[in-house]
Design a protein that fits this description.
single chain, alpha+beta, Beta Polymerase, domain 2
Length: 303
């Protein structure tokens, strides 16, 4: 676990903390044992627990997983006291590393982030967490536009169902992650003011506004993805019906011709089979039959 100190304020950070590290923190700051268990748990719901000497916060932050193309969630556990903050996470959020490097390498940045107390540091961290969500939402929106262009501009039958379903899954994941965060951020405005001051309440309201904007964009993306899926299925059905219609016309037109050729191919005596004009007559009959059938199809507007 790494630590930074400015004045009387200390920031502890650990990616993938061990039980030993958590027990050392508990011994130093008197954390409740249930909070330690929550940190060791793989899946803990977002929440804010208030104690006399600290706040315990659990956030879920979405991030993009390149190997699978899926949006996953990272659990961030935060212990916040008047003179300390501990951030515990899985190491998949580069924003923590960026802030840490800024504070570690620059005295000016260290002063900027830590001189106003742990509540301001919490705000900066959460602000950047949710600012990094906007590129994810923008990526989803851009991919929807690309799929829409491919769907409506291509004359060929294209199968985009897998791409659409992947986007829908990412949208559902993002919405399921952001939904509880809206309530969680809103509750921070009303928690013990010795951790989050009255002046900071407005700042946390700005974070809530960002989450609401992201939620609205995802709501629109959800509707667009559903519309694209319906349109794509209709387009595939239309193309399939067109192919089936062509094949059906070929089958229907060839069926009577096959009957005629099969009838005269039997090894029995048939009328006019010895005539020198038999072959020509059969060909003319077949041609006339084709013309009549195509004329009927055209009249019914089946072609």
């Amino acid at each position: 676990m790494r630590s930074l100190t400015y004045g009387d304020i200390t920031w502890h950070d650990d990616s993938k903390p061990s039980e030993k590290d958590l027990l050392l923190l508990q011994e130093q700051y008197g954390f409740h044992e249930l909070d330690i268990e929550d940190c060791l748990s793989e899946h803990e719901r977002p929440k804010a627990e208030e104690y006399d000497t600290y706040l315990f916060l659990v956030f879920h932050i979405p991030y993009f997983h390149n190997p699978t193309g899926r949006i996953l969630k990272e659990e961030v556990n935060i212990f916040l006291g008047q003179n300390f903050m501990a951030t515990l996470h899985g190491g998949n959020l580069p924003v923590v590393e960026r802030i840490w490097n800024e504070v570690q390498t620059s005295e000016e940045a260290k002063k900027e982030f830590l001189q106003y107390g742990t509540g301001f540091l919490l705000y900066e961290l959460m602000h950047r967490f949710f600012e990094d969500v906007f590129p994810l939402v923008d990526t989803i929106t851009r991919r929807l536009r690309e799929i829409e262009d491919r769907l409506f501009e291509s004359e060929e039958q294209v199968d985009l169902l897998r791409e659409i379903m992947t986007l829908k899954r990412n949208i559902i994941t993002m919405r399921s992650i952001l939904l509880p965060q809206r309530t969680l951020v809103a509750t921070l405005e009303h928690k013990n003011k010795k951790f989050v001051s009255e002046e900071l309440a407005l700042y946390f309201d700005d974070i809530l506004d960002n989450i609401e904007r992201q939620w609205a964009l995802l709501e629109t993306a959800k509707e667009i993805s559903e519309a694209l899926q319906d349109t794509h299925e209709s387009w595939l059905s239309h193309k399939t019906n067109a192919v089936v219609k062509v094949l059906t016309i070929f089958s229907v037109t060839m069926l009577p011709l096959t009957v005629i050729t099969g009838f005269y191919g039997m090894n029995i005596s048939l009328p006019y089979q010895h005539s020198i004009h038999a072959f020509s007559g059969i060909l003319i009959s077949m041609l006339l039959m084709l013309l009549v059938m195509f004329g009927y199809f055209a009249k019914k507007k089946w072609l």
